[in-house]
Amino acid sequence: MDPQLASAALEEIAHPFMVMLVDDQTFVAELLRHQLINEKDINFHYCQDPSLAVSTAERIGPTVILLDFAMPELDGLTVCQFIRAHPATRDIPVIMLSSNDDPVTKAAAFAAGANDYLVKLPDSVELIARLRYHSASYINKLQRDDAYRALRASQIKLEELNIRLLKLANLDGLTGLANRRFFDERLAAEWLRAMRNRNPLTLIMFDVDWFKQYNDKFGHLEGDECLKRIAHSAQEIFSRPADTVARFGGEEFIILLPETDSGGALKVAEKLRVEIEDLHLPNPDSFVGPFITVSLGVTTIVPVVNSSPDDFIKLADEALYRAKNAGRNRLSIALPPAG
To answer: Does domain 3-147 have CATH number 3.40.50.2300?
Structure first.
C-alpha cells in the first residue's frame, strides 16, 4: 500500500496499529497473537511465506513489521533488504526477531535495514512497548509527509498564481503583447548587454495607418479585433526568445530586436508590412488603399556610453513619422548620429 493511502486509512479508524509478522513457524505467530489479543489498538496479521512479505505489506499497510531472522528458504536479512528497496514499504519500521543475541547477528540485522532487534520470544510488556513506539513513529512520519505534500502543493499553486499575476502585469490586456512597462525593462536590460558586448540593437516602431477612420467606420469593438490580428502577425514574425513585441500605446507598436543589424531589420520590417496588408482587413475610408496598412520606423544602433534608450526610441519615432509623412504604408530608417 502506498504510504499516503495507508495514512488516510489509518486516520479513518482512529490510528490503530497494524503489526505484520513474517515468520515460517506458525506456533510463533500464535504466541504473538495471544500476547496482543487484549490490545485494542493493535491489529495483527501473519504472513508465513517470506516471499510474499513485500506484496502483503503493500496490501495491508502495516505500521510495523516483525521479521524472523532465520527462515529456511528466504532469510530475514534478504527480506528486509527487499522491504527497504520497495517504494511502498521502504519506510515501514522493521523489528528483527531472532533466537540469537550475539552482536554480530544484531549488526547484520541493522545493516540490512532493521530498525530494532528483539530476541524471541520477548515478554509482552517489552514487545507491546516497542510495537507502539515504532508504529506511532511511523504514523507521525506519514502525517508529516502528508502535511509536507499539502504544503508543497499549496506553495506550487501560489507560485503558479504569482507567475500568472506577473505575466498579467507585464502584458497588454487587449493584444496579449508586452506592455509599455515591461518593454522599458527589456530595453534597459538589452541596452546594457549590447553596450557590454558591442552588439547591434534594433527598434521597429509601427503605427496603423488611418486607424481612426477604421474605428469610425466599423466601431471600437472591430477596431480592437483589428489590433489583435495585427499583434498576432507581429508575434508570428518576431518569435525569437530574445525579441520583444509590445503595444506602445493606442494603435502604435514597438519591437525590440537584440543582435540584429540594419540589413536584417529592414527585411523583417518589410515582411511585417506586407503580411499586415495581406490580412485584407478592409479600411475603405483609408487614404492609402482599401485595406489596413502600417507605417514603420526602423533604427539600429550599437549602444555607447553617451547614448541612452530614450534617444534610441526617439530615433525610431522620427523614422516612423517620416514614413507617415511620405505617404504611409512604407518604412523609413533612422541612422544614429555619427561618432
So the answer is: yes
